[in-house]
Amino acid sequence: MSDNRKTDAPIVHCPVFSDSSSLTIPTLRILKDDGTLYPDAAMPDIDQTLALKIYDTFLFIRALDERMLASQRQGRISFYMTETGEEAADIGSAAALVDDDMIMAQYREQGSLAFRGFTPDQFMNQIFSNEKDLGKGRQMPIHYGSNALHYMTISSPLATQLPQATGYAFALKAQQKNNCVICYFGEGAASEGDFHAALNMAGVFKVPLIFFCRNNGYAISTPAHEQYAGDGIAPRGVAYGLKTIRVDGNDVLAVLKATQEARKLAVEHHQPVLIEAMTYRLGAHSSSDDPSGYRNKSEEDTWRAKCPVSRMKHWLILQGWWDESQEENRQQHHRQTVVDAMKRAEKVPAPPLEDLFNDVYESQPWHLQEQQAALEQHIRKYPDAYKKTAWRFGNE
């Protein structure tokens, strides 16, 4: 009787138990903290133009995160999430893609969207949920999406984008397109069932997909050692038949190199890849979180010294591509750009009421018509409680 189970394991005649030491996955690092390269390091495909675009995106995201977190504290917006300390992970990987590769983000990858060309006004319109928001004000702040930039709209439920990414990549393969999907998630999301289903399907169907795990050490307040007993997330990729690599997530050159090679595997060989980027979230999980309750300042200071932005800055200066004067000018430029865009967005009206009910059905069904009419009647009755919307009804 034939045995069609897929395994090339050798046969032994005494019990042999494997553990995490049986598979050791190294960490790719190219750039030292001082901006110099490790000897014999394999450089990514990068020139001055690309390097400066990546770094300028770093500076913009720092300015955006700083201003938006302050705005949340002032009560001007309801919610925000920074990516401080993790910029190299999403921006460096996005720089390895082509413009029409699909990005499926979790909620801390605004840098990849900025790298693609999402404007300060577009960021602000979404954050303030005004009528110019591409999502028509239906999402929480930072749940971006852009059809033009091939950036799938973010969904709040954790890890739902992973099986969706596998399905999207399967469609790319079926259509014989020379593109891939990159799907971002944190190590906390890797504890969800969707993670395992997605990786298993991707491995079986050999789809052009890069799973990109930002392992920043914490799932909100839960440290990694309380989440899993294995050696990080990377070994799971091997178990599901994916090509797998672990990188220093604060080393933008290592992230870029790994993702460039991963894209070749995904697009040219339909070989799904798992990248685990070891990084650290310097800020809070969100504007609703206080990290002082679960980690100490000494730990944060240790990782602050490994900052991906300063590491790349040192490298750029050593290349002769950057200096302190340019640094100061661009920082000031981005801060002013963000403030100006914020002031414009605050003045834009909220979306019209009908945007709560359209775009789902070609013809609005009776029950939505009734709900819309009931809501309009309620707002007319209590206009002072709905000032952002009631003005649209005039003196009716």
UniProtKB/TrEMBL annotation:
GO molecular function: branched-chain 2-oxo acid dehydrogenase activity
UniProt cross-references to SUPFAM superfamilies, sorted A to Z: Thiamin diphosphate-binding fold (THDP-binding)
BP term (GO), one: branched-chain amino acid catabolic process
Entry-linked Pfam families: E1_dh
Cofactor(s) needed by this chain: thiamine diphosphate
Keywords, alphabetical: Oxidoreductase, Thiamine pyrophosphate
Top class in the EC scheme: oxidoreductase
The protein's role, per its UniProt record: The branched-chain alpha-keto dehydrogenase complex catalyzes the overall conversion of alpha-keto acids to acyl-CoA and CO(2). It contains multiple copies of three enzymatic components: branched-chain alpha-keto acid decarboxylase (E1), lipoamide acyltransferase (E2) and lipoamide dehydrogenase (E3).
PANTHER family hit by this protein: 2-OXOISOVALERATE DEHYDROGENASE SUBUNIT ALPHA, MITOCHONDRIAL
Identification of the protein by name: 2-oxoisovalerate dehydrogenase subunit alpha
Organism (species): Marinomonas primoryensis
Source species taxonomy: Bacteria, Pseudomonadati, Pseudomonadota, Gammaproteobacteria, Oceanospirillales
